[in-house]
Design brief:
It is built from two helices and seven strands; from the N terminus they run E-E-E-E-H-E-E-E-H. It has one domain: Nucleoside Triphosphate Pyrophosphohydrolase (Alpha-Beta Complex). The strands form two sheets. Strands 4-1-6-5 form a four-stranded mixed sheet. A three-stranded antiparallel sheet has the order 3-2-7, with no helix packed on it. It is 16% helix and 39% strand.
Length: 134
């Protein structure tokens, strides 16, 4: 049996003026068909702030700045990968969200924390189970 270390994932909370969260529906990768926050895998030597900026720009075409750490989850996916997910809040963002990676995402939208679309991505599900409220 091999012992692979967990990956580090970043999930970015982006709220609009009405307090709704930006979510995207995943395609292809682990968690396909689920709704997740923008974000992705932390690269070697990268800060979580830089990862949040890069992934948000790639996935939903927004420029984010001034991120704040919020919470973390331990996420063992049934299909194999193990992630520790760090959630950050983008205190500032610029642009109009749109799908930047159509091969990885099928749709995006704004949702209330108490009324998220289903199914939700495992890290977000685990975050809700912990009782987190953004």
């Amino acid at each position: 049996m091999t012992c692979e270390r967990p990956h580090i994932g970043i999930g970015v909370f982006i709220k609009n003026k009405e307090g709704k969260l930006l979510l995207q529906r995943r395609r292809g990768s682990h968690g396909a068909g689920t709704w997740s926050l923008p974000g992705g895998k932390l690269e070697p030597g990268e800060s979580w702030d830089d990862c949040a900026k890069r992934e948000t720009k790639e996935e939903v075409c927004l420029d984010v700045d001034d991120t704040t750490f919020l919470a973390a989850t331990n996420d063992v996916f049934p299909e194999g990968p193990h992630y520790v997910t760090l959630f950050v809040k983008a205190n500032k963002w610029i642009g109009e969200p749109r799908i930047g990676e159509p091969d990885k995402m099928t749709s995006i939208g704004w949702y209330d924390w108490d009324d998220l679309p289903t199914p939700i991505f495992l890290p977000l599900k685990n975050l809700k189970r912990q009782g987190f409220t953004p």
